[in-house]
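Practice problem 4.
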């Protein structure tokens, strides 16, 4: 009761005052800490338990997953397996979700195999989570196998397929599943239309986007929320319809959030709309003075026009406010282990082998006629120095590691915390052809499947 009402101090005082604590008392206290976001305190109590049971492990693993501590989720699940404690459905869903967020396909496959081996029923909840995991790892065929094998599918199941296909660049198939969903008598909901509008956004289908946006309320009685408006503003902005995007933004029945303003700012940067971009950028910096992304976008807009005084002034403002740019981080799984790379990273134990592969990548890229795209390097430095900076982006480090740690025909799977830059996107296309390797890169917005010099996004992202 105390922890449900956020009074975790009173809950702990009561816990400490008890002369006899049974298993339920310990589990309740751990759950209380997790509900209040005190993850480390929950783990300390978990480690101090005289005896843990399946509920203790499930509670702690679910807590890690719910608070985006995905590495700890998988580590604790491994410990659970060592202790021969059988997980329940809730635990498995948490672990699969962590695999999805980390693009840890091999571990996700292991959990799926465990489910089959132990005769778990793949119900709507478990099946939908598996589909989401495979989609977020870029393994569409297996995701569809799970979908097709399910006896019962909920709206969430269809949504996972529609969103997953769209995110992986299979826009036509995403629309087909949307139509099939309606034919099967499953009513779409708000999340369904986020997926459908997202498909339009990823492919630049402006007319289709307008049509689906209008039919939401007219046909299905679903009032568009801020996410649907965000999809439309992003769709229009990416297509260069900046005036229409801004008019839609200003006509919204709710106050636009910073994500929508950010989408418009990104579109301004993409299409070189300096005046609108500067106005929107200044507004965003005022609304979110500690958001690094908006400062960087505005700085890039200034840099693209050679306004270095404005760039330096903005960076000075960032220093005064203590705004730190989030470093690009790329993750790749190898032999069940997640490897992380930051831009310019030299801490990996295989860094010498990675450096040699980077040199080989640079050699083959030049043979293919590759020219580094330094337009996104927003610093007033020499071109040669910009090129060196680009060659050590986190994506390229992860690709180099993938080339030395995995064998064909297995694809190289990478997840990045930020949007992939234009230069790394161009380089990955050429590398996929030069090394005859498929590269699957998931950035903050979507998937990029690089095969034989082409990308599934058709260079629209």
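Answer key:
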């Amino acid at each position: 009761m105390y922890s449900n009402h956020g009074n975790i101090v009173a809950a702990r005082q009561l816990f400490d005052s008890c002369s006899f604590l049974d298993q339920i008392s310990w589990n309740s206290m751990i759950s209380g800490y997790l509900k209040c976001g005190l993850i480390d305190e929950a783990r300390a109590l978990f480690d101090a338990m005289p005896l843990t049971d399946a509920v203790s492990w499930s509670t702690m693993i679910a807590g890690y997953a719910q608070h985006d501590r995905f590495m700890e989720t998988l580590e604790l699940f491994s410990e659970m397996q060592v202790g021969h404690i059988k997980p329940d459905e809730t635990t498995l869903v948490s672990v699969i979700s962590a695999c999805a967020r980390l693009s840890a396909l091999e571990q996700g496959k292991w959990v799926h195999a465990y489910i089959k081996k132990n005769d778990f029923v793949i119900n709507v909840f478990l099946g939908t989570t598996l589909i989401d995991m495979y989609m977020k790892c870029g393994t569409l065929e297996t995701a569809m196998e799970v979908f097709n094998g399910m006896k019962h599918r909920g709206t969430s199941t269809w949504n996972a397929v529609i969103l997953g296909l769209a995110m992986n660049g299979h826009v036509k198939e995403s629309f087909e599943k949307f139509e099939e969903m309606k034919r099967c008598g499953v009513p779409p909901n708000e999340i369904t239309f986020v997926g459908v509008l997202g498909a339009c956004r990823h492919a630049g289908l402006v007319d289709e986007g307008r049509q689906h946006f209008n039919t939401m309320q007219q046909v299905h009685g679903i009032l568009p929320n801020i996410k649907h408006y965000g999809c439309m503003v992003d769709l229009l902005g990416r297509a260069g319809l900046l005036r229409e995007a801004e008019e839609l933004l200003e006509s919204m029945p709710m106050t636009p959030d910073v994500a929508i303003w950010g989408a418009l700012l990104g579109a301004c940067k993409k299409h070189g709309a300096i005046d609108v971009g500067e106005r929107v950028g200044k507004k965003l910096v005022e609304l979110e003075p500690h958001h690094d992304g908006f400062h960087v976008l505005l700085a890039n807009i200034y840099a693209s026009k050679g306004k270095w005084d404005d760039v330096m002034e903005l960076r000075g403002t960032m220093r005064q406010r203590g705004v730190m740019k989030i470093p690009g981080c790329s993750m790749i799984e190898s032999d069940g282990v997640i490897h992380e790379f930051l831009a310019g990273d030299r801490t990996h134990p295989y860094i010498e082998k990675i450096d040699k592969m980077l040199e080989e990548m640079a050699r083959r890229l030049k043979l293919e006629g590759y020219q580094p795209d330094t337009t996104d390097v927003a610093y007033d430095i020499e071109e040669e120095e910009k090129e060196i900076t680009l060659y050590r982006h986190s994506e390229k480090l992860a690709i180099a590691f993938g080339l030395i740690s995995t064998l064909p025909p297995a694809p190289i799977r990478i997840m990045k915390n930020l949007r992939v830059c234009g230069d790394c996107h161009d380089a990955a296309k050429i590398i996929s052809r030069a090394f005859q390797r498929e590269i699957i890169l998931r950035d903050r917005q979507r998937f990029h499947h690089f095969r034989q010099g082409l990308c599934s996004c058709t260079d629209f992202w």
